[in-house]
Amino acid sequence: MFPIFEAALRLARTTWAEVLLRGFHFLEETILALDQEAKRTSLQ
Known about the structure:
Layout: H1 3-43
């Protein structure tokens, strides 16, 4: 394998992992916010 190609693959892999992690974190935050909102409205 070419070193440049290998480096590009590694970079792409870390970028995808980062994107997936951020997306998961964003989903988690959204779910938590919706959950809190649901609790707040049910209390009123």
